[in-house]
Design a protein that fits this description.
single chain, elongated, mainly alpha, 168 residues
């Protein structure tokens, strides 16, 4: 099927074989046969292990990704112990506790590699988030951190007192 019509720049013939359209490859697109052979020679198992380890490290830093939002919400809520700041602190607390409980399920897809360091990093980041949340709750007065918070537990002392005096 030969076309006798004049060809425009936007007119393509899709019936031609690949590479016969007369179009140059875009910059950085050319793949030589040497590059393809080099990728096959590396071995799929080592590449998959490296990929799994990289993905496991990405999963291990997920607790810190939600910290930015939590910090902004805690900052916007202020330091007064009213209903909305207390609710935001409670929501942040349950979020961090649920991250602690999801350690094994987060790394369930990586059973073929050792994820001990990644789990430790995950738990460390969760602990940092929890420490900041406890610091903020203490600043709001929600945690008993001052000596006046424990005044009910100080035993009463009965003092034996006597006084003597003369009046004129």
């Amino acid at each position: 099927m030969a076309d006798n019509k004049p060809r425009n720049n936007w007119d393509f013939n899709f019936e031609t074989a690949k590479g016969e359209a007369g179009l140059a490859d875009p910059p950085g697109f050319k793949v030589t046969s040497d590059e393809g052979a080099a990728n096959k020679g590396k071995g799929g198992k080592a590449t998959n292990t490296e990929l799994l380890e990289r993905k496991a490290w990405e999963v291990s830093i997920t607790p810190i990704q939600s910290v930015g939002m939590n910090l902004f919400m805690l900052w916007m809520s202020g330091s007064s112990p009213s209903i909305f700041p207390v609710m935001i602190v409670g929501w942040s607390f349950t979020s961090i506790i649920s991250q602690f409980s999801r350690v094994n399920t987060a790394f369930q897809n990586f059973k073929s590699i050792d994820t001990t360091l990644q789990k430790l990093a995950y738990l460390a980041l969760c602990s940092v988030s929890l420490a900041y949340l406890l610091y903020h709750a203490s600043g709001m007065g929600l945690l008993p951190a001052a000596s006046g918070d424990w005044i009910a537990f100080i035993p009463e002392m009965t003092l034996a007192e006597s006084s003597a005096g003369f009046t004129k």
